[in-house]
Design goal:
The complex is a heterodimer of chains A (525) and B (167).
Chain A (H helix, E strand, L loop, with lengths): L11 E4 L5 H10 L4 E4 L14 H8 L6 E3 L4 H4 L32 H5 L14 H15 L15 H13 L4 E2 L38 H8 L2 E4 L3 E7 L5 E7 L5 E5 L2 E4 L2 H11 L24 E8 L15 E2 L15 E5 L4 H7 L9 H7 L5 E8 L8 E9 L5 E6 L4 H20 L4 E5 L34 E3 L14 H20 L4
Parallel strand pairs in A: 1-2, 1-9, 2-5, 3-15, 9-17
Antiparallel strand pairs in A: 4-11, 6-7, 7-8, 10-13, 10-16, 11-12, 12-13, 14-15
Helix pairs in contact in A: 1-7, 1-12, 5-12, 6-11
Chain B lengths: L4 H14 L2 H4 L4 H12 L9 H8 L7 H14 L1 H19 L8 H10 L4 H15 L5 H4 L23
Helix pairs in contact in B: 4-5, 5-6, 5-8
Classes of the chains: A alpha/beta (525), B mainly alpha (167).
């Protein structure tokens, strides 16, 4: 692997190595553009992956101090863990479940189609599906997504999806598919096919599920154009007297403060750390933080409108056997305001192992006693769903810096504040009822609604906008204020859409890489 | 209060038989034996009442006392004051409400008192401790039909991922 000098101001510095940062590093390397990737977490290998929920949770989760606030139940039941994301090379692509859905056309223009929604900060993306379609196709081929882009068959239906699908058909649903998944159903891209191991969210031991950890990152390094520095926590982005990003300050594995100069800085630390970094980079010239002339840095935090539902069936299901999430029902994923909310949602199969079910089945103070244990004893009779729906952007849903509490580096910890918009609550209610109907139609004897899990989808906190006053970055993820500063992760999302964000993050990163190359060639940045 | 061994084995056997044909073979008797043997070991010393509280927080008739006692003994060792004060508080409430110590109450009465203290640090510590002790305990996975780690057996692609046949 090539290494670059800390005073080399010709490199692109990429903060984070996940779906955004990792993809970007490799796409830049293919254009012979040099990058230094600073990743806060450690580098793990496939040998480090265990089929053990708590062991992997402790090993790879982002567990640095955070605080949940606001009206969402996590502020009460999980105040120190608002989000479940990864701190490791590969970022959250190490633990994601692999669902790879495109945005629908209307989801890029929610404001034009639905008008202003009182209490929400709705805005159109400055890109359309038409512009994104070729990048979605590239991303699908890049990641190995089942379906027409690669020709790979969708996954065979496992037991849990069979249960849900049977009920769904009986209630009249039609869009019932075991994909698209960024998990190989045959050998692809020098990676093995899925073995239905059932621990997708603990890291894929086979490498069948796409992750930058064992694709983009090692390939970028092998090119000679990328250096990855794990255990490098970026604390601050620095700028020169003209207001151009000039480099970053970071703490290395030993806790020593280092500086890396940069030609371009790309922020891809996921939607809590990315705005936090911009806010912590405030200076005399930028007292509200970098890239924040709009005041929108940290705001419009979205997690999707979510809920967990488990059904107890009359006979064994064994949901733990097979992929965690290869089952999607999309009939409700269109814009139909007659339901009482805008945007749509998906029903997605979700299995939990016994350990995690005991933690999430009922995290409220009432989660104990005979009702709880009689449900746990039905573990192997369960099938479960996770709802993934449009989550309206609210300015008051935001990442802020704690007034007094500091982390191990002396920087204010992030406070993650979120409350439902009434439409979010209405969508959740609708989705839970719809899921219950499916399971009842399949013969469920008990239906359990779980409060939403710690957020594994985090979006919107450095959003794209056509006008500088409405957001943080333009249609390329480039800061409105600082030409050589980019955002490359899901914090760019203007709206959340009703599906998992990773495919869109990868498509945006591939497209951004081409734009950065163009701008560097034109000496525009 | 310990269940007789034959009752525990019968539950285990029923569980064993309920597994689908293919995977029943994967569960040799060797995997069922550890559950019974542990129940025969001497229980670690516990503050009086703590085992009763634990068994009320997560009541599972088929799980022997040893699986509750071991994690609870660790908790009592790590946080002796929290545990002592929590048990004393429960006994105070029991005597106030029913003139008898907690351990001597009927189940419904005990559950009512535990509900009063379910937000207390003591209760939360017992609950959290047992949540890991019971449900992140490989020896007990077979009781719930959870099969644990799978990659080393080739995943489930040939071990029943789609064998459901009752719909």
């Amino acid at each position: 692997m090539a290494t670059f000098a800390q005073d080399d101001d010709g490199v692109v510095v990429i903060i984070g190595s996940g779906a955004g940062g990792g993809t970007l590093a490799n796409a830049l390397a293919k254009q012979k553009i040099r990058s230094v990737v600073l990743e806060a977490g450690k580098r793990f290998s496939l040998d480090d992956i265990e089929n053990d929920e708590w062991a992997m949770f402790k090993k790879i989760s982002w567990l640095d101090k955070r605080q949940a606030a606001g009206g969402w139940h996590l502020a009460e039941n999980n105040p120190t863990l608002p989000a479940w994301i990864v701190k490791a090379v590969g970022g959250s692509t190490v633990h994601w479940a692999g669902i790879a859905l495109r945005f629908r056309d209307f989801e890029f223009k929610m404001q034009s189609i639905n008008g202003d929604i009182a209490g929400a900060n709705l805005l159109d993306w400055p890109v359309t599906l038409e512009e994104m379609a070729p990048w979605y196709e590239k991303a699908e081929k890049h990641m190995g997504v089942t379906g027409p882009s690669t020709g790979m068959a969708y996954h065979p239906w496992h037991n849990s999806f069979k249960v849900l699908a049977t009920g769904a058909k009986r209630v009249g649903y039609k869009e019932i598919l075991s994909g698209p998944m960024a998990i190989n159903t045959e050998p692809y891209d020098d990676r093995a096919a899925c073995q239905q191991i059932g621990f997708c969210m603990q890291g894929c031991k086979m490498g069948a599920k796409w992750s930058t950890l064992y694709t983009d990152i090692p390939r970028a390094e092998a090119s000679g154009y990328c250096e990855v520095r794990p255990q490098s926590m970026v604390l601050r982005i620095e700028h020169d007297a003209k207001g151009r990003a000039s480099g970053v300050v970071y703490a290395d594995a030993d806790g020593n403060i280092q500086r890396q100069k940069a030609r371009v800085v790309c922020v891809a630390g996921n939607s809590i750390e990315s705005p936090r970094l911009l806010l912590n980079s405030a200076s005399a010239m930028f007292p509200d933080g970098l890239a924040n002339s709009s005041g929108q840095v940290g705001r419009n935090y979205m997690t999707h409108t979510t809920a967990g539902i488990f059904a107890v069936m009359p006979k064994p299901v064994n949901m733990h056997r097979g992929t965690t999430c290869a089952g999607v029902i999309s009939d409700e994923s269109y814009n139909d305001p007659s339901r009482g909310f805008v945007g749509g949602y998906r029903l997605e199969i979700l299995a939990l192992g016994l350990p995690f079910l005991s933690a999430f089945l009922d995290p409220t103070p009432q989660g104990w006693g005979k009702q709880f244990t009689s449900r746990m004893e039905k573990y192997d009779h369960m099938s479960g769903v996770w709802l993934c729906g449009e989550d309206l952007p609210l300015e008051s849903n935001r990442i802020t810096l704690h007034a007094s509490e500091k982390d191990q580096y002396g920087l204010p910890i992030p406070v993650v504040t979120k409350s439902d918009h009434p439409m979010d609550a209405a969508m959740r209610k609708h989705g839970v009822a719809a899921t219950a109907k499916c399971y009842e139609a399949a013969g469920a004897t008990d239906i359990i609604e779980l409060p939403p899990y710690p957020a594994s989808h985090n979006m919107g906190t450095n959003r794209m906008s056509a006008k500088a006053r409405d957001g943080v970055v333009n249609k390329w993820g480039q800061s409105h204020d600082i030409a050589n500063l980019f955002v490359s992760d899901g914090s760019q999302f203007t709206t959340s859409g009703g599906q998992n964000p990773t495919l869109t993050i990868v498509a945006l990163a591939l497209r951004q890489a081409e734009q950065i190359g163009r701008l560097l060639n034109e000496r525009a940045i | 209060m310990q269940k007789p061994n034959c009752h525990e084995t019968a539950i285990s056997r029923r569980r064993f038989l309920s597994l689908s044909g293919q995977t029943a073979l994967a569960f040799s008797l060797a995997q069922l034996i550890p559950v019974r043997l542990l129940a025969d070991e001497a229980l670690p010393a516990l503050p009086p009442g703590l085992l009763r509280v634990g068994r009320d927080v997560f009541p599972h008739d088929a799980i022997g006392d040893a699986h509750y006692a071991r994690p609870l003994a660790e908790l009592a060792k790590e946080q002796p004051k929290l545990v002592a004060d929590g048990l004393a508080d429960l006994n105070r409430r029991a005597i106030e409400a029913h003139d008898r110590p907690f351990e001597m109450l009927e189940e419904a009465q005990r559950v009512a008192l535990l509900t009063e203290v379910e937000r207390s640090p003591f209760f939360k510590a017992v609950r959290s401790n047992l949540m890991f002790g019971l449900y992140d305990n490989k020896a007990l996975f077979p009781l719930f039909g959870y099969e644990g780690s799978s990659w080393e057996y080739g995943g489930y692609v040939k071990r029943g991922f789609d064998d459901l046949n009752w719909l």
